[in-house]
Amino acid sequence: MSKDTTMRRRALLKTAGVGLLAATFPMPAIAQSMPELKWRLTSAVPKSLATLYGGGERLAKNVAEATGGRFQIQCFAGGEIVPGLQAFDAVSNGTVECGHTFTSYSIGRDPSFVFGTVLPFGLNPRQTYAWLVQGDGNTLLNDFFQRHNAYAIPAGNTGVQMGGWFRKEIKEAADLSGLKMRIPGLGGQILAKLGVVPQQLAGGDVYPSLERGTLDAAEWSSPIDDEKLGFVRVAKFYHFPGWWDCGTNMSLVVNLDKWRELPAVYKAVLHQASAEVNSWMQSKYDAENPAALRRLIVAGAMLKPFPKDVMEKCFQAAQETYAEIAATNPTFKKFLDSYSAFRRDQYAWWQVAEYSFDTFMIQQRNRL
Amino acid sequence: MSKDTTMRRRALLKTAGVGLLAATFPMPAIAQSMPELKWRLTSAVPKSLATLYGGGERLAKNVAEATGGRFQIQCFAGGEIVPGLQAFDAVSNGTVECGHTFTSYSIGRDPSFVFGTVLPFGLNPRQTYAWLVQGDGNTLLNDFFQRHNAYAIPAGNTGVQMGGWFRKEIKEAADLSGLKMRIPGLGGQILAKLGVVPQQLAGGDVYPSLERGTLDAAEWSSPIDDEKLGFVRVAKFYHFPGWWDCGTNMSLVVNLDKWRELPAVYKAVLHQASAEVNSWMQSKYDAENPAALRRLIVAGAMLKPFPKDVMEKCFQAAQETYAEIAATNPTFKKFLDSYSAFRRDQYAWWQVAEYSFDTFMIQQRNRL
Question: Which chain B residues have a beta carbon less than 8 Å from that of A82?
């Protein structure tokens, strides 16, 4: 390019810029496409789970900033206006316009709800997002959620979680027999096949039950969240990985009538605000977990991988559980078929560049 | 909550909704915060690299949709108005308002530019994003880019790439000696310590050079991109991992004067649009690479990990290279210190939940 052309281009850009700034704007179009709007968001979690709850607040902040404050979303913690486990229902029935939740909390209605969150022994966090947005994951989900008057967008991931806190070390699959463990959802159903007695307890009840010994084990989240509940003081064995929370997705769930009424601009803003939260939440867990894990080890946590026979028997039990559900639930089967095909492909590729690089770097970690 | 309260709340929400839709809008405020604006974006890559080039187009589409078309960005492929390698310079000197590029292309100016893209044997893709947005990565980068009149936002990642195509299998580090390999940047500098003669060739020149044998090897990208250039027909050995492209970040780079002039709403929109592209690009590579790799194997690719001694000698050469650069370049040293500390922490944590889960799933892949 000649210097003359470059200079002409710059002059042109400058003129154009001034022209544009002084232009008159089509006001009625703006007003229609970006009306002032106030929504309420109910989160599935309490404020103490700062990264999960913070995802909803960040989403609201993103939306406000991208719309100059015209679209405002007020956030409520789980329990403030709706109990955390009922966030999806509150969206579905129109009590609130939207929620930030794990759709798997609605597993009691239909096990298919887990596909909006995570399938035990499923896709890892990055693969989960790929299935949702590039595979047919989110399309299948929204076909399904439509029956429940809701529309979902991925908006957060925790990464692979830990396996939780155990009063006694798990050395073989037989050690699971009769174990009273706080573990909700499909993970609990699968572990029940190995003799675990799954318990449903709210966060605040877990610590005293572990301390008294009425509970033998409890899974919660990853180091930064687990640390807050102080489990290390009453159950030292910290097993991993949390194969039932291996890529746990959080969703922005919007009441479908409210979604349909939304101008196209706001739909786009919600999608992009959620995508930002998705990366932000994962990166926050990634950034904060290393130091939290170190602190937990200093506090006495005994870091232990689940033995191989435990992992393999649980994997087998998971496959059986899915086959049983799919046999009587065609929606679950439809999800499972899509998800399983994607999963087969993903690990075949993951083992090549990603995994071999991680392997080498982990081997070098004392030289880093 | 009583049913009465719920009903009152719903009635209230409905009334509020109608009221808001009928409200009058502060037009001048909207016009000021969201003026009509037309920018040009120059991409570092040709349209044939559909996922990389597509990232820029998706960014522009995101911005247009989130602003109701008031902020328009027109995309140009590398070479259309500015050569691909000069995208950053064109932004810096104001030829265009913004670019979508690998800042490492400016390594000739200062090796510190690599930290905006990837450091060989560095953070993996997810860790890279965590360093950029939760660590001090992007803050350090923008302090640095300020000197070059630019502002950067992460906007895409390729995942860990492949090691490239070799006419002869690399069985030990000695096989690298005298090897003429197309590999730009720091990766080439590091390999030169093992005797590789790095070549800088544009994409279109690589295939004929490999075919004639004037080139022994070439690194490019990951399966979906590599497939398009047909390397498998002239160099069968497909080594991995591409340790020099282990979490390659693409950036939206904005001319700093233009950035500063931008209303706050548009700054927020650019940040969120870029974050969406970041996840989208990674997920697109994740979704498309498995089938591309399968097709390459059918076409005759011999998939080979780099031998351990090659990896270890390259790792050692990388550490030496960084120490040499840091000794005379305080900016590079500042980046390296932040990056290295973050990397140490990341792999210490990564080996626990993430890596142990991936390991188990890869072992089960014939049962998936």
Answer: 1
The answer to whether residue A266 sits within a structural domain is yes
Q: Could you tell me which chain B residue has the CA closest to the CA of A293?
A: B349
**Total of domains in chain B:** 1
Longest dimension (CA), chain A: 82
Q: B303 contacts in A (CB within 8 Å)?
A: 352
- Distance in Å from the first CA to the final CA of chain A: 45
Min mean pLDDT across A94-103, B20-29, B294-303 is at B20-29
* CATH number of the domain bearing residue B77: 3.40.190.170
Q: What are phi and psi of B95, to 5 degrees?
A: -60, -40
**pLDDT tens digits, residue range A149-175?**
999 999 999 999 999 999 999 999 999
Residue-level pLDDT at A365: 87
State whether residue B136 sits within 8 Å of chain A by CB.
Answer: no
Structural domain includes residue A214? no
Buried/exposed code over B225-248 (b: 16+ C-beta within 10 A; e: otherwise): bbbebebbebbbbbbbbbbbbbbb
Q: pTM (2 decimals)?
A: 0.92
User: Would you state the torsion angle of the CA atoms of residues A325, A331, A332, A337, taken in this order, to the nearest 10 degrees?
Assistant: 120
Sign of CA dihedral A91, A92, A94, A95: negative
Token pair, residue A288, equals: 């904060």
Q: pLDDT of B161-189, one tens digit each?
A: 999 999 999 999 999 999 999 999 999 99
Residue B224 domain-assigned (yes or no): no
- Whether the pLDDT of residue B75 is over 50: the answer is yes
Residue A340 within any structural domain of the chain: no
Task: Verify whether the Cβ–Cβ distance A348 to B367 is below 8 Å.
Answer: no
Which of A82, A118, A127, A272 to mutate against chain B (most B CBs within 10 Å)?
A: A272
Characterize the bridge pairing of strands A71-76 and A37-43: parallel
- Number of other CB atoms surrounding residue B185 within 10 Å: 22
**C-beta atoms of B276 and A276 within 8 A:** yes
| Closest in B1, B27, B368 to A343, CB measured | B368
Is 50 exceeded by the pLDDT of residue B10? no
Mean pLDDT over each residue of chain A, to the nearest integer:
92
Predicted local confidence at residue B203, as pLDDT? 77
Let me know if B279 is exposed, middle or buried by CB neighbors in 10 A (0-12, 13-18, 19+). buried
pLDDT of residue A51: 96
Tell me whether B280 touches chain A (CB under 8 Å): yes
A133, A271, A362: residue with CB nearest B355: A362
Closest CA to A232 of A155, A156, A299: A299
Least CA distance to B341: which residue of chain A?
A368
B 171-200: CB under 8 A from A = none
Residue-level pLDDT at B20: 43
Q: Is the CB of B240 inside 8 Å of chain A's CB atoms?
A: yes
| Strand-pair category, B237-240 with B164-166 | antiparallel
Nearest to A123 by CA among B287, B133, B101, B127: B287
What confidence category does residue A29 fall into, taking pLDDT thresholds of 50, 70 and 90? Answer: low
Identify the closest residue of chain B to A137 by CA–CA distance.
B287
Provide the residue range defining the domain that includes B282: 3-160+246-286
The DSSP call for residue B293 is H
CA-nearest residue to B26 within chain A is A31
Q: Is residue A298 less than 8 Å (CB to CB) from chain B? A: no
Mutate one of A266, A302, A345, A362 to test the B interface: name it (highest B CB count within 10 A): A345
CA distance B63 to B65: 5
